[in-house]
Amino acid sequence: MTATPPTLAALSAKNLYLQPLPPSHTPLPGKENFGRYMLSIPWNNVTGWGQATIEPRRDITVDPLSGVMQYAGTCFEGMKCYKTEEGDLRLFRPSKNFDRLKRSAARLGLPCEWDNDELVSLLAKLVSLESDLVPQYDGGNLYIRPTMIETGEAYGIKASPYASSALLYIVTAVNLGKALYASAEEEGKGIKLDACKEYIRAWPGGTGSYKLGANYGTVMIAKKPDFAMSLWVHTEGGEDYISEAGAMNVFIIKQAEDGALEFITMSLSNGIVLPGITRDSIIELLRKHGANEKDFPLDGMLRNIRVVERDISMSEITSSLADGSLKGMFGCGTGVVVVSIGQIQYDNQMYTIPHNPLVLLLRDTITGMQRGKIEHEWSYKVPEWKGVRAEAAAESKGNDEKAEDLAA
Amino acid sequence: MTATPPTLAALSAKNLYLQPLPPSHTPLPGKENFGRYMLSIPWNNVTGWGQATIEPRRDITVDPLSGVMQYAGTCFEGMKCYKTEEGDLRLFRPSKNFDRLKRSAARLGLPCEWDNDELVSLLAKLVSLESDLVPQYDGGNLYIRPTMIETGEAYGIKASPYASSALLYIVTAVNLGKALYASAEEEGKGIKLDACKEYIRAWPGGTGSYKLGANYGTVMIAKKPDFAMSLWVHTEGGEDYISEAGAMNVFIIKQAEDGALEFITMSLSNGIVLPGITRDSIIELLRKHGANEKDFPLDGMLRNIRVVERDISMSEITSSLADGSLKGMFGCGTGVVVVSIGQIQYDNQMYTIPHNPLVLLLRDTITGMQRGKIEHEWSYKVPEWKGVRAEAAAESKGNDEKAEDLAA
């Protein structure tokens, strides 16, 4: 599953080249909300990873027959950088994202070997340069989009299933927290989903558990205007099962017969659900709390809870709604963090899901960790970087050389 | 399914802008086999289709957060241009390809409305400029790759499922006919396939019947070194069914109990098989011949034949091999045209498929039509274009203006 013989150059943060913004920098119209810089690292199967560069955000230039243009050779991650009340920058479990990017890249035959510490170090420098842009309030953050594309030629029959060259790049965008997050605030309402059977997002043996561009562009047209997103439904043995909603993992909250409150989410075993990092974090926090191993970080979580990973059918949702055992439903992911699901349209009927205050508690816990209000090992503190001063110096003096010296 | 209100500008061949090659033109290293020119036509949802341009082949430049980079917003076609013995250029059913491109584009929310005659006219001009490069022998041709990419921004939650901007471009490559076609010549041997159950190419409700990049990049890693390509196998009700092989449609040739020779290929009904144009052509030729409506173009085709479109299981293949009723198997598509399948590895066993001379007859018929050796309405004769003279004039005199005048 790897295209990288060990003799090729490794990905390294050491020889970073920093190209500062020109003193005259002004963002292009329509691109004002993007981070001003981008990080990119080229790779090819002859020399391995090339020099990492942080430079002013620019277009990507590829051959018309490159893998990304022709055969959807692209995978990505979604991450966020937060600013604490004290003004330092935080990332949330960044190595988890880069592990998943490796897995996605391997699935596409793209380079998938690097030291996450090197990549986190480079990302830390990138976000440090944008520190002034990172909102310092709940819900605001700098959205980070690591992307790996196949730049090598790919058309017709290739002798090797592996890419000959690729580019890993990271761009950012300021997230003022006005979109989905805002609707998430309206607890008691939640978002409205359309259960979609016409388009199937993923299937066993496919790519649903990988964060490939191919999983996203192909289901765009399923979105209906009045709905926040689609709830993906697939049919097996005459039963409709749910998997994800839009690009979120989904949980239902259900009263079990033994008195426990169950948080049920789709298992990863059939490979049609993305192994979400927010999903994983919620499961670990709830499991440890339920098992009395480690208390949930915020007050208010019940003790008699249980996390269950298994399939969830639409008939389970409708019948547990009818008998009152369904106590809530939510989606989670980097974009939305945690958001209540308020309504589901399914088979021409609208189902209203009960509101559960634990959803808000979950969200406040995750966002609290992310913004460093709740101290936790999952929050990665971005170290100060002297390159930021170099950049500032270069910006005022137009002194590129100095920036380069200090960037190392 | 359309993002194009009728008030937007239509795709037009009228105002083509031709940018001739510079007199000093030399191909870049590693790109010598590519056509020297490319055709591109931008589109956006405010003004519609923009000016078509034919210019020296260049890289594509897109925003790092464009739909093609992030969400695999890309679809394509494969076509070929042939040179007849008389020296004129031919395309094979080009409108069929552009109809399929519309369908693929619609599936991705990309622009999908244009007059095929306009696009064929532009393509005809592009290939006219490359006329000197088109091989004039059987198996040689100019491979044509129309591609539509989403250039508009796509990340996070989009309000609309439709692209805001896109680019339709066409590039070409000289195909000397030394690759798969050559192995196809070795009749009696045929290509070797690996029946793959680990990776599933397509499933009902997915995108298997659309020519999306997403269907191709995601299955690259299934390819095993000793095999020409994978035979895609999916399991339903405990039975393994085949769909496509690599990027080809597949037929089996089987002796039916009533004495007819059946050409059986997977039905398009469940949406997991690409509606191939070679497939469609073969079906029509055989059906009309079998029904005594129109004779098969070359001598040697049996009269008592029948085309059947239905599912084909691996157990049908192995059992009809055992009882002798399997008379042959072949793949077809623009790339390979028609190629015998000689061996299939399935469940750790190698099956040898009998050679059938009708496969060669089918290939000779299709390639004969394509190269104009068999006259048929499916062969589109590229009209002469004065822009070619303009281009030549500009090349010798460096006179861009004259080229532009004549290009209209």
UniProtKB/TrEMBL annotation, chains A, B:
Family that this chain belongs to: Belongs to the class-IV pyridoxal-phosphate-dependent aminotransferase family.
E.C. number(s) listed in UniProt: 2.6.1.42
InterPro entries: Aminotrans_IV, Aminotrans_IV_CS, Aminotransferase-like, B_amino_transII, BCAT-like_C, BCAT-like_N
Cofactor(s) for this UniProt protein: pyridoxal 5'-phosphate
Keyword list, A-Z: Amino-acid biosynthesis, Aminotransferase, Branched-chain amino acid biosynthesis, Pyridoxal phosphate, Transferase
Domain of life (superkingdom): Eukaryota
Modified positions (N6-(pyridoxal phosphate)lysine) in chain numbering: 211
PANTHER family: BRANCHED-CHAIN-AMINO-ACID AMINOTRANSFERASE (PTHR11825:SF44), SUBGROUP IIII AMINOTRANSFERASE (PTHR11825)
Name under which the protein is recorded: Branched-chain-amino-acid aminotransferase
A GO MF term: branched-chain-amino-acid transaminase activity
Database matches in PROSITE patterns: AA_TRANSFER_CLASS_4 (PS00770)
